C-alpha cells in the first residue's frame, strides 16, 4: 500500500540513529486537512501502534498508517530528495489530482 524508496530508507535509518532511536520506531504517515491544496502529509517516528492502524513493512522500514489516511495514500511511495530543487521527503501519490509547489499538500 505505502512503499519506501531506497533513498528514503537510507535517510530514515540515518535520522533514527541521529536521534538515538531504536529500530522499534516505525514511521507514521498520515493525511490531515490543511495546506494550500486542502490535504497535508504528516510524517513522524512512532512506537505506539493504534487499533485502527494498517501496518506495512517495506525494505525493513515499518510504516503505520491510520485507516482514514490509507484511503488517500494507497499506492504512495515515500521518497527522499537532496538535490538543488529541494531537500526532504517527498510523497509520490498516484491519488493526488493536484499538489502545491512545496509538495507538502495535495488534493484528490
UniProtKB/TrEMBL annotation:
Positions of the Core domain: 2-104
Pfam family, one: Fe-S_biosyn
Residues spanning the signal sequence: none
Molecular function GO terms recorded: 2 iron, 2 sulfur cluster binding; protein-macromolecule adaptor activity
Domain of life: Bacteria
GO terms of biological process kind: iron-sulfur cluster assembly
InterPro entries documented for this protein: ATAP (IPR016092), ATAP_core_dom (IPR000361), FeS_cluster_insertion_CS (IPR017870), HesB-like_dom_sf (IPR035903), IscA_plant_cyanobact (IPR031108)
Entries under NCBIfam families matching the protein: iron-sulfur cluster assembly accessory protein
Entry protein name: Heme biosynthesis protein HemY
